[in-house]
User: What shape does this take?
Amino acid sequence: MMKFKVSQKKRCIRTGNWKRCGAMRFLLVAIAMTVSHAAAETNPLQVFILAGQSNMQGHAHIDTMDAMAYAPETAAILKEIRDGKGEPRVCENVWITSIGSSEEEKIGKLSVGYGAEPRGPKIGPEYTFGLYMQKLMPDQPILIIKTSWGGKSLNTDFRPPSAPPYEFNEAQLEGFAKQKKDISVIKAEKVKATGHYYQLMMEHVNGVLADPSRVYPDYDTKAGHELAGFVWFQGWNDMVDRGTYPNRDQPGGYDHYSDLLAKFIRDVRKDLSVPKLPFVIGAIGVNGETSLYGPDQKRYQGVHQNIRDAMAAPASMPEFKGNVSAVLTEKFWDYEVTSLRKREKPIKEEEKRLREAGKLSRGEQRAALDKLYAETFNERELDILRNSVSNAEYHYLGSARIMTRIGKGFAEAMVELTK
Assistant: This one.
C-alpha cells in the first residue's frame, strides 16, 4: 500500500497530471480512513465496571445543567456534554448496562437517564466518565457496566467473600438486649444480608461478559473484550454506622473499612481473573473539605475526615501501587451554591414565620418573599440558587455542577492508571 502511494505520487509529478493526482490523493485518503476505521473496529471492547450506593446511582437532575454555565470549570464541561442543538450528548462509542434499586436493567448508548429513579432524568458519575473516556481513548469501543443500589454498606451488603463473618460487638449486643430484641433473629438476618449485593454485582457483571453483544450491538467477537477498570463510589452507610464503627470520631476509627475495601479489591480481581485490574476509589466528599467546615459543621468534622482517610487508604498500600487510585470528591464541592444557601436561610425562616402566622394570603406571602429574594440576590445568584440544586447535601445537592466534575475526575484517574 505504501509503495503504491509513493509510486503514484511520483507519476503525478512527472506527467504533470494534477487532476489525476488530486483524485488519487483523495482515493488514498479514503482508503487510509477506511483502513483506520477497520483497525479501530478490531480493538477489544474496553469494559469498565462502576459500582456503589446512591451517589454512584446519581441524583443530579438534568435541569441543573444550565447552571453549569456560570462557573469556568463547569462551563467547559457543559460544552462537552451538549451537542450542536444544545441537547445532552449521546455517546457513539460508549454503551451502558445499568441495574439499581428498581432491579430493571437499562441498556443503550450512554446519555442522560442512567441516574437514580424516580423523578428523572438524572445522571450519576457514569455520564461524564463515559464521555471523557471516549475523549481520552478515541476509537476505542467502550462498555460501562453499572451496578448501584442506594443505602448499602461495605461492612454488610457489599462485604467481600474473603472477609470473616460479620460479628456484633458487645455494645451492639447489649443494645439489642435492652430493646428486648431477639438476637438470634438479628444474627440470622445479618448472615443473610452479608455479601448479598457483592454477589448481585458479580452476577450481573459475569452475565454481561458472557454475551457482550447483547448490550453492545457492534461487538466484535474476534477482537473480544477486556476488563479495563473498576470505579467504586460508596461509603455513606458505613460512615453513619455507629454500631460497626463505635470509635468513628477518633483517628483510625474506620480502619476496618480500609481493611474491607482492600479485601474487596482483591476479591473483585480474583473473581474476574484480572490480577491488576485498575481500580479507582471515589472517596465521599459531601460538604467539601473538612478544613473549611463552618461552626455548624464542626461536630461532623472528625467523622467525615476519618471515613475519607479510610476510603483513600488502600491507594497508598504497597501492593496496590500504580493500579489503585483515590479521587477526593471533596475537590468538586460547590462552595458558591453553599454560600448562597446560607444567605437564603433567613428568608426560609421568614417564610416559615409567615406561613405559621396565617395573616397573609398565599399571594401576599409570595410577594413578600420575592421582595426579600430580590433584595438579597442578584439575577445570576438567584438562577444558581434555584436551578443548580435538585436533592439533599448527602446526594451532592443533586447538582450537575458537582456530579459532572466527579465523573470527569474518575475518568482522568482511570486513564492515568492505564498509562
Notes: The first strand starts at residue 45 and ends at 52.
